[in-house]
Design a protein that fits this description.
The chain has 260 residues and is of the alpha/beta class. It is 37% helix and 20% strand.
Length: 260
């Protein structure tokens, strides 16, 4: 794929920055959306490109997903040797410590129980929607559900109001989190931890808008929306199949600059 000249220029400038963070969502970016989420597979070459980027000097790589951490580890095949940070549950989980300053205490456990009870009631009233449980959250899934049922269930879930519980609307999901973390706060925590000068993030979902917003204040950062829909991202590419071209361009330019 030939990248838009504006995006290509931004990537070239980004590649010339000091320490950088390259981060991406999983579903809808590294892997196309599929009917059965358990069968998601990264696009050919995408994980190899991320591993190659992570080996370049001053280049930190992360996959930031709404998936819980255990599932993300299985689906990506990332190991400790890959030097790729995995962040699950929208920032509530990570495979290495990050300075998020949040803890899952008794109050958080009570919020999670309340959120679970409320969302279970929504699912019971709108079959065959289903519930997914995460360490710090609970998710209503409406994929493969009749549109009228999905819409009614989504409205009911979004109306849940529990103090301290964050409600996130996404593609065919509504997620309730008992911890005050988002993909945006996770990106900021990693930028602080690695002392990077600029960050790049690719996302496709409504939940990724919080990440785009967190990076919008610094013109050195790059935000890329994958697919259609309104977005705060500065750039857009059409499909997950176009994502490897972004990584390849960044890898090639940064590798060249590191040897000159």
């Amino acid at each position: 794929m030939s990248l838009d000249p504006r995006l290509q220029g931004a990537l070239s400038a980004f590649a010339g920055s000091g320490p950088i963070l390259v981060a991406t969502d999983f579903d809808g970016v590294l892997a196309p959306i599929v009917a059965d989420p358990s069968t998601s597979t990264p696009i050919a070459g995408s994980m190899d490109l991320l591993r190659e980027l992570a080996q370049l000097p001053g280049t930190f790589v992360a996959i930031v997903s709404g998936r819980h951490l255990a599932a993300l580890q299985v689906l990506t095949g990332v190991s400790a040797e890959d030097a790729i940070v995995l962040v699950g549950s929208h920032g509530a989980e990570s495979d290495r410590p990050l300075p998020l300053d949040v803890g899952f205490d008794d109050a958080a456990r009570q919020r999670l129980r309340a959120a679970s009870t409320a969302l279970e009631a929504v699912a019971a009233a709108h079959p065959p929607t289903r519930i997914e449980r995460k360490p710090a959250g609970v998710v209503l899934h409406t994929r493969n559900v009749a549109p009228n049922v999905a819409a009614a269930a989504t409205r009911a879930a979004l109306a849940i109001d529990i103090p301290g519980v964050d409600v996130m609307d996404g593609k065919q999901i509504v997620e309730l989190s008992a911890l005050p973390v988002t993909k945006g706060s996770a990106l900021q925590a990693m930028a602080n931890e690695f002392d990077t000068q600029a960050s790049l993030y690719l996302g496709d979902d409504v939940t990724d808008e919080r990440a785009f917003a967190a990076l919008a204040g610094d013109p050195a950062n790059i935000t890329i929306k994958v697919g259609d829909g309104e977005t705060a991202a500065a750039f857009r590419i059409d499909h997950p199949l176009d994502v490897p071209s972004v990584f390849e361009s960044l890898r090639d330019t940064r590798r060249l600059l590191s040897t000159t």
